[in-house]
Structure formats: structure tokens, C-alpha cells
Amino acid sequence: MKPWIGIPCETVRDKEWWPAAHGHRQTYIEAVVSVGALPLLIPTIDQDELLLSYYNQIDGLLLAGGKDISPAHYGEHPHPNLDEGDPVQDCMEISLARRALAEGMPTLAICRGMQLLNVAMGGTLYQDLPAQCAASCAVDHDASSKHAIAINLEDWTFRAHDIQLDAESQLAYLLETRTLRVNSLHHQAIKRLAPGLRATGWSPDGVVEAVEGGDNTSSEFLIGVQCHPEALYNGADTRWQTLFSTFVESCITFHWKRDRHDATDLET
């Protein structure tokens, strides 16, 4: 079977007078398709009934990169360097993430997605690393963005810095390494780690670069990464292909378990 992977959309408006478009970057879609799954783009909606209908169709959740998350969701006032956000997208993704966590649905969270996962589970964020961690941040965490701008190309493959992985982490097992070089395109990061998550990867300056579900989480696959493996898996670092393929395998397993559970409920 080909599992359905839900990818919540972001809202894009090219001009002030232009109607909003809902979508996401092609690289996420290609990464999901490359490992035999079907991407289902979930539009930015604020209707719980419709959102639940979308959720019930999917076998896995991919929380992608994008806009800054409102600090209201973790009890802080906006920093002056906070970029534009999307309140509807924030609420929609938090709702989806919490549903997935409660049901044990496989979840892969990338960049903003990892930050959103942390917030949904009760953690906090640095709203702007350069302003809030200037003394301790020895790494330019937006170096890959600057490289793409400098060469004037849509190229996110520039690997800016190393990360160190926990030897006991699922990610270290999948990638068969404890150290690897990654791309970096962010100015926000995890500040206080949420209960139920454990940090499993760090940049040289201590910024959390990977998280996984703790012992009290029910999902067999719950991984977040701060880098963008969807821009690396098909050339720059093919080891990331294993992350996507394992995610999809977990989604297939989840699909059949949920089907058996639903069938048992009907019988009783």
C-alpha cells in the first residue's frame, strides 16, 4: 500500500491585493513520493470538523518548515525581530500535532515543524537566535539561506555546520553516524525542551538540532530535525533517504494497526 502523508500548507500571498494561495515547497512533496508515499496537502483552515476529516485520511504527519510561530502559544510577548507568522496555520498544526501524538501517529518534523512540535508539547523557543543568544551562538544558523542569496540560486544544499547526534538515538542508527554536516536556514530554535521530547542532536554551540519522542510517547516514529533533509536526501547527502523511508514504513505499520483496531471496534 501507499500511505497518505499529511503535509499542512502555509499561506502565500505574492502581492497585497492577490488572493492567498495554499501550498508548500516541492522538495517536501518529492521526498515523500520518492519513498513510495502519497502526499496530502492540508489547506490552512480554521474549521475543526474539516481538519478532523483531513486527519482521518492520513497515516503520517509531516510538519514542514515555514513562518515564525507566535510566542503567544508559549506565553511570551513578540520579540522585535520576530518575522511574519500565520495564526491560523499555528493553531491548525498544533491541533494536528496533538492529535497525532495522542494516537501515536508517525510524525516527522522539519525546521519550523520541530519548533512547532516542541511548542505543541509544552516547550518554548528562542524567537531570534542572533538577538537572544549572541554571546553563546558561535554558529551562523542562517548560513545556507545567505549562501543561496549570494549565488542567486534556489539551492538549499549548502551544508553550513556539523551536528553531533546522541549515540543511542534513532537518528544516529538510521544515518549510521554520530556526526554529520547539515544545511541551516533558521533564526528560531528550541529554548526549553518540552516534556515528552528528548534532545538527540546539537550544533557546536549547543543549539538543539534534533529531537525524538521520550519513553512516555506512544508513537514508534517521532523525530524532529532543525535542518532540511528534503533538500539533501537526493544528492548532497543520500543518507537522509533512510529517514524518509523509515518514516513511511512506520506509516504503513500504523495504517494496518489502526485498521485492525477499527475492525475490532466494529465487531464489539
Describe this protein's structure:
The protein has 268 residues and is α/β, with parallel strands linked by helices. It has a single domain (4-267), classed as Rossmann fold, CATH 3.40.50. Helix content is 33%, strand content 20%. It has 8 helices and 13 strands. The protein has helices at 26-34, 48-55, 87-103, 112-120, 129-132, 143-151, 170-175, 241-267, and strands at residues 4-8, 10-12, 21-23, 38-42, 60-63, 107-110, 125-126, 161-165, 179-182, 189-190, 197-202, 208-213, 222-225. β5 (60-63), α3 and β6 form a beta-alpha-beta unit. α3 crosses α4 (112-120). The longest helix has 27 residues, at 241-267. It is globular, with a radius of gyration of 18 Å.
Provide the descriptors you would attach to this structure in a database record.
globular, 8 helices, alpha/beta, Rossmann fold, two-stranded antiparallel sheet, 20% strand, nine-stranded mixed β-sheet, 268 residues
